[in-house]
TrEMBL record:
Domain of life of the organism encoding this protein: Bacteria
Organism field: Nocardioides panacisoli
One of the Pfam families matching this protein, by short name: H2O2_YaaD
Source organism phylogeny: Bacteria, Bacillati, Actinomycetota, Actinomycetes, Propionibacteriales
Protein name: Peroxide stress protein YaaA
InterPro entries associated with the record: YaaA
PANTHER family for the chain: PEROXIDE STRESS RESISTANCE PROTEIN YAAA, PEROXIDE STRESS RESPONSE PROTEIN YAAA
Amino acid sequence: MLILLPPSEGKAAPSRGRALDLDALALTVLTDARKRVLHALVGLCRDEPDRAVEVLGLSAGQADLVERNARLESAPTARADRVYAGVLYDALDAGSLSAAARRRAATRVAVTSSLFGLVRFGDRIPAYRLSGDAALPGLGPVAGVWRDALGGAVEEALGRGLLVDLRSSMYAAFWRPPARLGSRVATVRVLHEVGGQRKIVSHFNKATKGRIVRALLEDGADPRTPAALADALRDLGWTVEVGEAAEKGTQLDVVVAEL
C-alpha cells in the first residue's frame, strides 16, 4: 500500500541539522527534477526577493519566507514528518506512532511536494515555501515539472500494492494515475454530516485524513483493493460508502458527524 498525502503550507523550521543532500533523498529517479526546481526557487529568492514575494503569492509581511528559501541549500534539515505541520499532520501525530507503525510509515507513506516531488517521512528536508500552483521564472509551473517526472517514482513506490490517494486537488494535478492502475487506486473524500446534510469542510477533511492514516499504520492492515480498504476503515470505526469503480480509481466517502 502507498498512501499519498498533500504537503502542508506551514512547516516547522529545523533549528539544527545537516544541510540538504538531494542525492540522499528516497526515490532518486526524481533527483534531476528536484535540482531544477530547487535551483530555480533559490535563484529567484536570492536574486529577486521583491519579485519572489509576488511569484510565491506572499504578503509583504512574509519576506522572511523569501529569505528562508534563498538559504535552502545550506539550511538545517529534519525528517519530513517533523517538518510538515498543520491539521492533517497534527492528527496523524507521527512522532507518537508505535515502533511498528513508524516502520510501516517509512514504506507506505509519501508526501507530494512542490519542491521535491515526493518525500518519504524519513527524508531530511528544510522548511520551504512553494505552493503547488506557483510558476518559477525560467522553469514554468512546478505542476508541469512534476507531471513529467512523478509517474515513475509513484509506480516505483507503489509496487503491486493499493494506492490510497489523499492529496488535495492542487497536488492531485501533479500526477494522475493511468487507467491501467485504476483497479488499485482509492481516493478518499471526507463528508461532514449535520442534520442529514453533507458537505466538505476543510478542517474535518484534513483532520480525518490524518486520523485515517494513523489508524491504518497502527493497525497494520494492508488492503489490496478499494473495497478491502473500505472494509478495513469500517473495522476501525468509520462510516464508509464506496463509489463506482472507474478508470482512474474508486472513490470512498468517509462520513463524519463530529471531529
